[in-house]
Specification:
11% of the residues lie in helices and 41% in strands. The chain has 586 residues and is mainly β. It folds into 4 domains: 214 residues, outer membrane lipoprotein receptor (LolB), chain A (Clam); 111 residues, Acid Proteases (Cathepsin D, subunit A, domain 1), CATH 2.40.70.10; 135 residues, Cathepsin D, subunit A, domain 1 (Beta Barrel), CATH 2.40.70.10; 73 residues, Pdz3 Domain, CATH 2.30.42.10. α8 crosses α10. The N terminus is likely disordered.
């Protein structure tokens, strides 16, 4: 039998670079038909996501696949997902009969990988090694992910291959069957990256080849190329609640959804009902049965949105997670807007000004002075981390989590000795990795975010190693701390820019937080400092500062910061009347 290429007869249309110690199945090629002749493969896929029809078209450098769900044996073309790459290498995505749109980074890598898997120059830039069970051959296409093949010997066809799927899991396809150079069937399973939180459940997907045909004309679903939309300008929305930044996002051509802006979430996740309203397309892979620390427990699957739009800002097609019942856990929100989307933009959370902004990378110009501090992120692609410290625990790094309303959650090992569990009160955990798990409310003696110290702070603590957020650093800081700054997160460049607010300067100088309740200006929080020494405990109504009536919280902060000298004179309202208070001024 002739030694054939791994996959398609059109492989010879690719480059003829010689492989590096490549096995015979990839290094030797069959004599190819004319490059104008395409090859179309039609598979049926059975798995936990239901039955699917999976069509693959390969013509020279062009690669297109269509994934169509089957309901009672009928193709649901309106819900079909098309992924492909043009002859020029432009990756695109289309849902149903909609226009083809450019693919984002993750989808572009997946398309490049599958284009190599089904027809390309696997002998280029490849390597091979020997394992106890046989030969291992691996290849990484440009812009793609690594493909690895297992062979009984260098002259055999592969017994298995693996690569990374859209959820970041290792997908292994084995028990492969072949029809000449074409894979005719096999069984695929996925290994979760959140391995310590995986439920003991193994589900597999089986694919079988039904039709192989030569074609000189592309089918209608494979003919259109991508339509690019420029990423320009800024999208700004009000921020009525400084602890819960949210924005309306449109996916595809459906109605916009209300999403919480969550820099602590590596991926964007939608509630299943909201995803159906938005018109995102299911991808058809094995569902995810892992419970990461930033999501409530539940089952989720991968879907694709051919367009992501925040106002006039239009992003390329992206892969998303969809989870049943997520909306109930989030309250009024339809999901979480994660770092996979935010990496394309600059996130500007201006809690002091009550505004949330999203900037195109080339459109961002800081208003006013330069940032008071720029913190370098060293958390990698799926985390935004900044340096910090916790009193009694030590220095380290915090995850910046705009989706958390709390001030901080600390999971460093030093918490066991610095803040013993017997001094903590268990509180229910909203997002739990394990059923029945709890956080513990503690009062940190102090906290530092970059160069900015904070006084005693109410926080959560985690004491079990298996409950840690990602096994690194001190934990996370949420909007309870970040609301004292204007925060600009540039996830792509790995930078977090901070501007101090008057609220932080008052907290630092006087140990007090000023807020408004029912139209009155109150001392919401009083920590150790000049005002606590004057026997103020919090909850007092602030009437006047240095003889000037107080109208609102912003004016009260300006008056306190404008005091020069050693003392500040206040008039406060108490339950039994008013009192004059004289406190030291730092």
């Amino acid at each position: 039998m002739r030694a054939l290429s791994l996959l398609l007869l059109v492989a010879a249309c690719g480059p003829r670079t010689r492989g590096v110690a490549a096995p015979r199945f990839a290094a030797r090629r069959a004599e190819a038909p004319a490059c104008a002749t395409g090859l179309r493969l039609d598979y049926r896929v059975e798995g936990p996501a239901g039955p699917w029809r999976w069509e693959v078209l390969r013509r020279g450098a062009r690669y297109v696949e269509r994934r169509t769900p089957l309901v009672q044996g009928r193709s649901q073309d309106a819900r079909a997902l098309v992924l492909g790459r043009t002859e020029e290498g432009a990756a695109f995505v289309r849902v149903g009969a909609g226009p083809a749109r450019p693919a984002g980074d993750l989808l572009r890598a997946q398309i490049a990988t599958r284009a190599s898997l089904f027809g390309g120059a696997l002998a280029c830039d490849a390597g091979a090694g020997w394992r106890r069970r046989g030969a291992e051959y691996f290849y990484r296409p440009p812009e793609g992910q690594t493909l690895a093949f297992l062979l009984a010997h260098p002259g055999a066809l592969p017994e298995a291959w693996d690569h990374t799927d859209l959820a970041g899991r290792l997908q292994v396809c084995e028990s492969l069957e072949w029809r000449g150079p074409v894979p005719a069937g096999g069984t695929c399973r996925s290994t979760h990256s959140f391995d310590r939180r995986v439920r003991p459940r193994a589900l597999e997907t089986r694919f079988a080849l039904e039709v192989v045909q030569r074609t000189r004309q592309d089918p209608p679903w494979a003919r259109r190329g991508p339509v690019a939309e420029p990423l320009e300008g800024t999208h700004a929305v009000p921020l009525p609640d400084p602890l819960r930044p949210s924005v309306r996002v449109a996916f595809g051509d459906g109605p916009p959804l209300e999403l919480l802006v969550d820099t602590g979430a590596p991926f964007t996740v939608l509630d299943a009902r909201a995803a159906r309203r938005a018109g995102v397309a299911r991808y058809g892979d094995v569902p995810l049965y892992a419970d990461p620390p930033w999501l409530p427990a539940g089952e989720r699957e991968v879907a694709v949105a051919d367009r992501v739009a925040l106002g006039a800002l239009t992003l390329p097609a992206m892969a998303l997670w969809v989870q049943d019942g997520l909306g109930a856990a989030l309250g009024e929100a339809d999901g979480l807007l994660g770092l996979d989307v935010l990496r394309h933009l600059l996130l500007d959370v201006d809690a002091p000004a009550g505004e949330l902004r999203f900037h195109a990378p080339d459109a961002f110009e800081p208003r006013g002075a330069r940032p008071d501090a720029t913190l370098r992120d060293f958390g990698g692609r799926h985390r935004v981390r900044v340096p910090g410290a916790v009193a009694g625990v030590g220095e380290g790094s915090f995850i910046v989590d705009t989706g958390a309303t709390l001030a901080a959650a600390v999971d460093a090992p030093g918490m066991r000795t610095a803040y013993p569990r017997r001094d903590a009160t268990p509180v229910p955990r909203a997002f739990s990795e394990r059923p029945g798990a709890v956080d513990h409310a503690v009062r940190l003696r102090g906290l530092r975010l970059g160069p900015y110290p904070f006084p005693a702070t109410e926080a959560w603590a985690r004491y079990e190693v298996r409950d840690r957020f990602d096994g690194r650093g001190l934990g996370l800081v949420g909007m309870g701390t970040l609301r004292f700054f204007r925060v600009v997160v540039d996830a792509r460049a790995g930078e977090v820019h901070l501007w101090e607010s008057d609220a932080y300067r008052v907290l630092r100088r006087y140990g007090v937080e000023i807020g408004e309740e029912e139209g009155r200006v109150v001392l919401r929080r009083v920590e150790r400092g000049p005002l606590s020494a004057a026997r103020l405990r919090g909850g007092e109504v602030l009437r006047a500062i240095e003889g000037l009536p107080v109208r609102d919280a912003a004016q009260a902060r300006r008056l306190l910061l404008g005091v020069r000298g050693g003392r500040v004179h206040l008039r406060v309202g108490l339950p039994w009347g008013e009192a004059e208070v004289v406190a030291a001024s730092r």
